[in-house]
Amino acid sequence: MVLGVGGGIAAYKACEVLRRLTESGHHVRVVPTEAALRFVGAATFEALSGQPVQTGVFTDVEQVPHVRLGQEADLVVVAPATADLMARAAHGMADDLLTSTLLTARCPVLMVPAMHTEMWEHAATRDNVALLRSRGVVVAEPDSGRLTGADTGKGRLPDPAEIVDLARLLLAEPAALPHDLAGRRVVVSAGGNREPLDPVRYLGNRSSGRQGYALARVAAHRGADVTLVAAYTADLAPPAGVRVVRAGTAQEMRAALLAESDGADAVVMAAAVADFRPESLAEHKIKKSDQDPDPVKLTRNPDILAELVQARRDGRLRVPVIVGFAAETGDPGTTVLDYGRAKLARKACDLLVVNAVGEGGAFEGEDNGGWLLAADGAESPIRHGSKSLLASTLWDAVSLRLGRQ
Question: Is residue 391 part of a domain?
Fold first, then answer.
């Protein structure tokens, strides 16, 4: 793998990207620009990668590095990709080792921009990004937040963990991040609801929110305008370019989803919505005593997925594609897939992702897999892999359906 580093203040974050990639077992060669070495010295990159660092084409000429690096790479990641670097890459310039490597690379190329908002929004940069994407380069969406000095806005380098996740996704599936959702608005729910018993305790579930966050992240980097309705999650950083709406309980999530979904192109219900909540909320902490506590009476929560489908059927909601998730366990008489088919029939959504849970499956883990069921009867397995890989598979199916309309 080649890690290109552009000459921006965010170059220091490339060190964390490099550390995470090498710790995952990848062989990484860092190729910075001369300007990047003004922010981070070559010794740092060499110590973290175990590989020599050079910027020009006249070092080790007998090994022809300006050609060999691109030819041998399985993936090229450029982080940060500055406005100047993307302009040179878009116009085929090869005036240093990094731009020469980009010209010879025939593997997936991921560019992760970082610059001030005005530079990102400038027409020249937008044209260069469009040109790179038209040639198959994956140009990620920058994050929003604090920039240099007192400035804030869009143009911040995404979290290193997010960059590494995108890199791993492209290694697993080179075609995983087309820019096919540009102009689309999607809503994704994530995480597990917590239904309060008293001011201290709650009823909850084991959902970490990772799958929903992966869905939002991948959709944003495929060009979508993404709203993430998030319940409680495992301290996950908000994905770059995604608007997050917090909704802790099932009733709060219902209200948020009904408000956000109208007019969206797709709604994906990946959250583990609580089926029940306590009938009443104790005003004070329930004290422990020698006597057994009173039984907790439960009442049903709204079925948000079914309500979204019904609202669309009644004409109260405009959304072409509604996707549900089914976290199931099988039993001696019924398989996980059987339960999934039954849920699809009940909910009447367009697509349903069926996951087998338990024994490390789906909840809390880094990987996922299962089956994708469609309302027209189509069924396809989702190969086991990262949750971002599952997200890409699902967005492929959603994009296909949106393209038919």
Answer: yes
